Amino acid sequence: MSAPNKSYDPVEVEALKPEAIDRARDEALAAIAAADSLDALREVKVAHSGDRSPLALANREIGALPPHAKADAGKRVGAARGAVGKALGQRQEELEAERDERVLVEEAVDVTLPHDRQPAGARHPLTTLMERIEDVFVAMGYEVAEGTEAETEWFNFDALNIGPDHPARTTQDTFFVAGASPQADGAKNAGKDAAEESGVVLRTHTSPVQARALLSRELPVYVICPGRVFRTDELDATHTPVFHQVELIAIDEGLTMADLKGTLDHMVRELFGADMSTRLRPSYFPFTEPSAEMDMVCYVCRGASVGDPQRPCRTCSSEGWIELGGCGMVNPRVLRACGVDPDQYSGFAFGFGIERMLMFRHNVEDMRDMVEGDVRFTRPFGTEI
Ligand code: DAH
Description:
By secondary structure, the chain is α+β, with helices and mostly antiparallel strands.
C-alpha cells in the first residue's frame, strides 16, 4: 500500500487508473471463461480475486486516497470486483453441472450387461468322494488324519515290514527326494544316486499313516487317512503318477477279521447302495497278516451277469466282482515297530485308490480327465456333498 495520500488525484495511483482496473477485470473474466475444470477455476480464483490479485491490491490503495477521491475509486474497483465475483460464481455452477452430468453417465450401471462372465467352478469329484468316504467313517467314530506327502523311507517302508530288498523300494516305483545325507558322499563314491540316500521319498501309498497314527495316539486307534500318493508311472488312461488313496487302521483289544469284513460291507453299502457287499481273497502284503484283496459286488450288473451269456457285463467281465483294494490284520511286526504289544492289541487295515473308485461310481473311463482340471469334466458332478 502506498503512503497516506492527501494531495494528488486518484488517477495518479497506477493501480487505480480506470484502464488498469478495466484490464484487470477483463483479464479475470477471460481467465474465468477459459477455465475448463473446477481445479482450473480454483487457480483462476486465487489469481484474480485472491488477496494478492490486481483488484485486491487496487482495493487496498483506496484507503490511502484523499476523502473526495475515495468514493469514485471505490465504485470502480467495487464494480470490477463484483463482476469478477459474479463470473466466478456462474462458471463454478456451470462446471459443477458439467461434472455432475459426466459422473451420471460414467457411473451409470448398465443393467443389461451380462453378470456371469466368471462362471462358478465346480468342486473336483475326487474331493467330494473323499469327503463322502470320510463321512462314512467319522459317523462310526473314526478320526481323520493326514500324514505327510514327503515321507521318510522308514515310515513308507521299514515300519511297514517292507524290507530293503522289496521291489516297492526300487527306483522303478518310488520318487526319491534329493537332499543332504550323512552318507551321500560315500554313496556317490559307491556309484549310488544321492537322492536315493536322502532317506526321503514321496509316499508311494497312504499306509505310512498306519505307523504315524500308532506312534502319535493313545490306544485304541481308529483312524482314516485320505491323501495324495506318488509313483513313477506315466500318465495314461489307467495310470497317473499322482493319485489318491484312502487308508484305514483300527487297533483295539479283540478286533478280528470279522470286524474288518463288517466295516468293508458297511462302507460299500453307504457308498454304492444297500444291496452291496464285499468278499475277501487271500493275498500278501508285508504289513498285514493275514492279507486279502477286497472285492465288491459289481456295481453295474450287481452279479446278474455271472453264468448268464445273454447278459455279459463289460465292467466285471461277467465275474460279478470288482477289485477295490488291499486289506488285512495289521502285522504284529508293524505293531511292535510302533511300540504296541501284539499280545494285547490287534486290528485291521485297508487301503484303496480313490481314482479307481470314482471310475466305478461315475463311469469315468479315462484317468487323464481327472487330472486335467477341465471344468467340463468337473461341472456335471455339480456340488454333490
Ligand atoms: N498300501 C497298499 C498299496 O498301496 C494298499 C494296502 C494293502 C493298504 C493292504 C492296506 C492293506 O492298509 O492292509 O497297494
